[in-house]
Design goal:
278 residues, mainly alpha, Serine Threonine Protein Phosphatase 5, Tetratricopeptide repeat, 2 domains, 13 helices, 2 strands, 2% strand
């Protein structure tokens, strides 16, 4: 009798467990079919608590709630919205609440300031977000770097340089923040400013490896500047721009074409600017 009772009890638990699981599965399937049916429509509730309320929360709960908002924002990245502008605004509001609760959570800055940007308006919204909340974490070099990166994607290379320089001043900043700036000066067409920047770096450099790459990039920009000045000289003499760098050599404006330490040689683009073939 005792064996039968134990046997019955075990099977009873199994049946109940199976029934509960089957019921839950049925509910999930039913609502999935209902939600994804063509006739289904819903209204999104755009509500978030005021950040001033969150500041009064017990410190021990802030980190947990910050994680909750962060997860909500990440999940919202795949949600459908009426427009991408509304989506960016909504997601950034959630990330902002997470930052108010935990300012050191760097992923919030990255996703709200960089990941959401896929066109000029959203990139500008990312820049605005990062500038607005940078005060919460002023010791992180990545925030000005991400602002500079957004400016780079917008094609505003001088603004990108300014924020890269700001980020490079942090002690924990990586060295590439300085080495990448000559390329930005090149893209911005500000060759002489790039030369001045590199000469300043060279005067302060002590590491042999740094001295090598600075001299190499300095030679690269000086070659471009030299060819650009000779192009202007050609135009002053002949009343027209040269068709190519080779023509400047043929006309005796330059003795030889300098070698390109980075690319596959210099050339004259359609706008009359000296460029490298990368």
């Amino acid at each position: 009798m005792r064996v039968f009772t134990q046997y019955y009890s075990v099977w009873k638990k199994r049946v109940i467990t199976f029934a509960v699981f089957g019921g839950c599965l049925s509910v999930v399937v039913f609502f999935s079919l209902f939600i994804f049916s063509p006739s289904y429509s819903y209204t999104r509730l755009y509500f978030l608590p005021n950040s001033s309320y969150l500041e009064a929360i017990t410190p021990g709960l802030k980190s947990l709630l910050s994680d909750a908002f962060y997860i909500q924002a990440i999940l919202s990245l795949s949600d459908r919205f009426d427009s991408y502008r509304k989506k960016v605004r909504w997601i950034q509001r959630i990330f902002a609440l997470s930052l108010v609760l935990d300012p050191k959570m760097e992923d919030n800055y990255f996703f709200a300031g960089v990941v959401v940007g896929n066109d000029p308006p959203s990139l500008k919204a990312g820049i605005k977000f990062l500038k607005k909340y940078q005060y919460l974490n002023p010791d992180d070099w990545r925030i000005p770097y991400w602002i500079g990166f957004d400016y780079y994607l917008l094609g505003d290379f001088l603004s990108a340089i300014r924020y890269y320089q700001c980020a490079s001043l942090f002690k924990s900043a990586p060295s590439f923040l300085k080495s990448i700036q000559p390329m930005l000066y090149y893209k911005a067409g500000k060759i002489k400013l790039g030369i001045v920047f590199l000469e300043g770096l060279l005067s302060q450099a002590k590491n042999k490896r740094d001295i090598r790459w600075i001299r190499k990039k300095l030679l690269w920009l000086k070659n471009i500047n030299y060819l650009q000045e000779r192009k202007e000289e050609f135009q002053a003499l002949f009343g027209r721009p040269p068709h190519s760098i080779e023509e400047m050599k043929e006309k005796g404006i330059i003795a030889h074409i300098p070698s390109d330490p980075f690319g596959k040689g210099y050339y004259l683009d359609k706008d009359g600017c000296i460029k490298s073939r990368f």
